[in-house]
Amino acid sequence: MSGLTPDEREGVRRAAWDTLKRFADDPRSDDRTKAWSLSGSTVGHALRKQTADAAIASGVNLDLQRLMSRPISSEAPRELDANATIREVFLDALHQGFVRLGMSRDEYWPASARQGEFQFTERGLAQFRRLGPSPSRGGSVRAAVQAMANSGVNVAAGTLDLLDEAQSCWRSMHNRAAVVLIGLASESNCIGFLDALRAHWSAPAPGSPLVAAWNNLDPSKAFQLRWSAAGDLLDSLARQPRSYYRGTPYFTAWQAYPRALQAVVDAVRVSRNAGAHHAAGSFSGAETALLLASMPHILRSLAELTESLDPSVAAVPLPQL
After folding, report:
1. Which of 146, 207, 284, 291 has the fewest CB neighbours in a 10 Å radius?
2. H helix intervals, the chain
């Protein structure tokens, strides 16, 4: 019999990190008189069992009874492989200083450590409880975007559902589907910005080198042409002396934009097109997670840029192209 496939091993690894996050979020992790357990021999909530449950829920087919038996039979290589993967994640967390063996009340090398007990360090609690989205934590991307929307950041309709489904796909290792959904969410919000740019700015004078870019900004053009044209138009203003628009409501947004945001959106767009149109293409979990985690930043930047173009918000007229 063979062990886990690479995809299954990655699923177990994600489930193990997700389980550590859930343990860290639990208020009981603040109690230094209690500890979690790697094996479940002394504490009911064991890392190994909870990870196995999470992995099975995400589609990894494990024999839970074998996985939880000690010792695991050498005739069960899949369970041995899963157990080793869970321990690798735990050791990684230990090496990074996120957890410590035993309990803080133990003066010497703790007997509880030999039983697989551990506590989160202050650094570990801060890491696992950090603000912002974490692709491995279900619903966290949606929560981050929802919090932005609740604070007044304009987010295109359907964005929450698209990103929530993308995160679910990623957690189930359906990376191609996740990339396509991320691309759809990104493009719908980019279009709102492009439409505002076209609506609130005046066309450049005839003969201007920006006429071609302005024409490509037309809503009838393909998204790639429109997005590239927007970069050219804003770059033309970025080349102006800062005194030209310093102190205006749009200075901060434009200073943060030009090619940095465009490069990130281009990465999402190219990946989405590859996922939708090239069946032979493959996407790693790390690549997909990076795109997913970048979405709240992309959405906030687009919203700030769009607002800066609104004459009812900007107290001074937009500069001429």
Report:
1. 207
2. 6-25, 47-57, 64-68, 77-95, 111-114, 122-128, 140-150, 159-171, 175-200, 211-216, 223-238, 251-256, 258-277, 285-308
b/e string for 85-98 if b means 16 or more Cβ within 10 A?
bbeebbeebeeeeb
The verdict on 16 and 120 lying in the same domain is: yes
Quote the domain boundaries for residue 239.
Answer: 140-308
Check whether residue 218 and residue 192 sit in a common domain: yes
- Structurally, the chain folds into a number of domains equal to 2
3-state secondary structure of 151: coil
Cα angle 278, 280, 282; round to 5 = 95
Given this model, what pLDDT does residue 17 score? Answer: 84
Is 169 a member of any domain? yes
215 and 119 within one domain: no
Tokens matching residue 233 = 């138009």
Task: Look up residue 245 and give its DSSP letter.
Answer: T
What pLDDT score was predicted for residue 217? 92
Q: What is the mean pLDDT of residues 170-187?
A: 87
The verdict on residue 117 lying in a domain is: yes
